[in-house]
Amino acid sequence: MPEVITANRLTDGVVLFQTADGGWSEDFNRAAVHPDAAATKAALALAEADLAANIVVDAYAFAVEIRNGHLVPKAMREAIRATGPTVRRDLGKQAHGLAPHSRPATFGDA
Predict the structure, then answer these.
(1) Distances from the Cα of 109 to the Cα of 3, 15, 83, 91, angstroms
(2) Tens-digit pLDDT string for the chain (110 aa)
(3) Which domain holds residue 42?
(4) pTM of the predicted model as reported, rounded to 2 decimal places
């Protein structure tokens, strides 16, 4: 199952996603997708270096899937982390156009 690596930036707690070059982005759509366990393990090893350098905290992998032609997190927790607040669409990543193209059907458009 494909996976993405996520963490929080140490300085402000913002959710980050590991990119293909081993860097970090606030934009889920720029996240590197790891197709198998070996690729995920290698990406987590890169993240460990950033943990040791106090750049990020709590790095881990989570499953993603294709939904309506777009990559989206499988778990609700990760969908929330990728899109931002769930109460107001004018706040967070969705207000700045950084949310994933698709979101779980349970999210309201409040």
Answers:
(1) 27, 22, 12, 12
(2) 899 999 999 999 999 999 999 999 999 999 999 999 999 999 999 999 999 999 999 999 999 998 888 889 999 899 888 887 666 667 666 677 665 554 343 323 33
(3) 3-95
(4) 0.77
